[in-house]
Amino acid sequence: MSASHIKKDAEHRMKKSVETIQNEFNKIRTGRATPALLDSVKVEYYGAVVPLSQASTITTPEPRLIAIQPWDKNMIAEIEKAILKSDLGLTPSNDGTFVRLPIPQLSEERRNDLVRLVKKFAEDGRIAVRNVRRDANDHLKRLQKDHEMSEDELSIELDETQESTNKYIKDIDELLGRKEKEILEV
After folding, report:
1. According to the model, what pLDDT value does residue 186 have?
2. C-alpha distances in angstroms, 176 versus 50, 86, 88, 91, 180?
3. What Rg value do the Cα atoms of the chain yield, rounded?
4. In this structure, how many other beta carbons lie within 10 angstroms of the beta carbon of residue 12?
5. pTM beyond 0.85
6. I need a labelling partner for 81 at 20 to 30 A (CA). Which of 38, 107, 156, 159 fits?
7. Extended beta strands in the chain, E state
């Protein structure tokens, strides 16, 4: 394996770690309506189990309301059932055309719990990025040991790997800062 291949693989894996953190953050209900809250909800639609977003239009007409308009009106009961089973802690209501999901205000205690949770996700992401760095460095050192690169080249490659690590950890820290702010907004 060449040094450039090792760097590309490490970069790809670090990027995936950041994307995973972003996805975890999107699933956390903050008291603000966002269609991403429903990403994990699946419904049966014409014999196939599909994400809710593939069977309806999901909008946020107000900061604390998600409106779901199924493409087939007969799907309303199925959508309500799926939301209730989803562990989101939300109670849907419908008017025959739309399913409405009011997002309740979070208590101070719940906000603090969510902040602790996102900090844990962020730390897990940082650890994942550092593990990728360690793996890449081990591969690079093996190349140098096998005389496939000089010590100077190894030093340059290790520095570049560290720069990538710093960049992705900074991305995670920025995501964490935004999510914390969003959770603590009243």
Report:
1. 58
2. 30, 25, 21, 28, 6
3. 22
4. 10
5. no
6. 107
7. 42-45, 48-51, 56-62, 65-70, 93-94, 99-102
